[in-house]
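#struct-pred
JK: can someone run the complex with 3-acetylpyridine adenine dinucleotide? inputs below
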Amino acid sequence: MRIVVIGAGMAGILAGIKLKAMGLEFAIYEKADRIGGTWRENTYPGLTCDVPSHHYTYSFARNPDWTRHLSPGPEIQAYFEQCCDSFAIRDHICFNTGVAKAEWDGERWQLTLSNGRSDSADIVIAATGVLHHPALPPISGMETFEGALFHTARWDHAVALQDRRVGVIGMGSTGVQIISALAGVCQKLEHYVRTPQWIMPVENGHFSKEERVAFRNDPATLEAAMDVETYTSNVEAYTDGLTKPDSPGAQIWRSACIDNLEMNVRDPVLKEALRPDHEPMCKRLIFSPDYYEKIQHPDTRLVRADITGIEPEGIRTSDGELHELDVIALATGFRADQFMRPMQILGENGADLDTLWSHKPIAYLAISMPGFPNFFMLNGPNGPVGNFSLIDIAEHQWNYIEQLMAPILKGEKATVAPTPDAMARFDAERIEAAKQTVWYTGGCQSWYLDVDGIPASWPWNYSRFVEEMKAPKWEHFA
Ligand code: N01
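RT: done, structure tokens with the ligand placed:
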């Protein structure tokens, strides 16, 4: 039995660690020259995980050394590097090797690699991530800009920012973190915001040296500091708020965002310019300790006028103003419907996943597809992607995938894939539930919405997800 994992980001590393512990033969193919996925590709100033540090770690590899309550990106990258070494999976990773094609030949998966070589596997685990194809805005004249222009996931660190005129387009979590980091650093910092977002206040203090020593010497201290019970009940309350927008829990989150704006933006004109016109949590909630403070920095300016084009000297807005700039950062998000594409994946009878997903991607419980035997996804389509730890989500999914793999590994079943009927019924139920969520009812556009305007995220609460992941319903599989 040979297993191939595609991608060496957070989820692929998890798969590698688990497969190693199971004593199985496996390879991880990684298109880049380093592990890390999103934490490798995003290096923008201010990059921070908005999930509390100690909860954004594998449950079996706690890290006493996080320096802050919310970890900076480079620390997270270093953590994953460290995990690869301490669990000895680096030798299993083939770097600079993408999977161009995976084809089911009736018995096994035949893989064509980007370097022209081939491989085969009994089981394929796709751990290719969700947000990795930058969405470039259709703004005219971008190619004419004489300064530096790049997407935030392709940050050009050769470009100096100090004493320069910098424009950041977009107010998602990325744009907000960049404004927080660059306010007061640049000569002029402009934030171009088409749709203001709600901001949840959060503290981001440092762990003292003493705390970190205590965490290292006594794991019980670390577990106590994590307070898993409270964290889990917060996640539950949060997902309840998303899925039942009228619930008292949702009201608490809503009020916290509204109070944050009311209390922390002094100028009434700026306050109104920053006031969203949709429900809090409709777009993925932004957590920030200081965005409102930083947007009020004397050298920082909010620009709400629409962008009409980019010119050699800068950005032109609908009020006719030309904003002269040296650097433009596109914090314009990602194409969330891409998953492992452009990889070609051919299942039973030559069925092409790209064709099946040409309207929009679907998957049974976000993990598997009918007609694609022994092919399992971590963080696949319509799974839980929200303001909670994707590591925790991937661990639950792995627990489920391990159970799907068991009969194959034992030779009890040659293949495992969901039935078309289970897929269809799951997706119909999912879509109905998605229409009750605040992502749908809250009156906003966001990357959660698919091409039909249906939220492409787990539409039930956290405990339902945990329950579903406990064990496969075998009657849904062939
Ligand atoms: O992207 P986004 P992001 N003209 O899609 C604007 C994760 N993440 O990179 O709302 C002008 O949220 C767009 O405007 P509008 C997290 O899951 C996690 O910030 O469409 N503006 C919006 O303001 C997050 O949700 C962390 O009107 C244009 C922005 O660009 C996800 O990544 C940190 C435009 C895009 O916001 C994506 O966040 C960072 C145009 N033509 C990110 N096109 C953590 O801390 C787009 N926009 C874990």
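RT: quick notes.
The chain has 15 helices and 21 strands.
The longest strand covers residues 99-104.
JK: thanks, will look after standup
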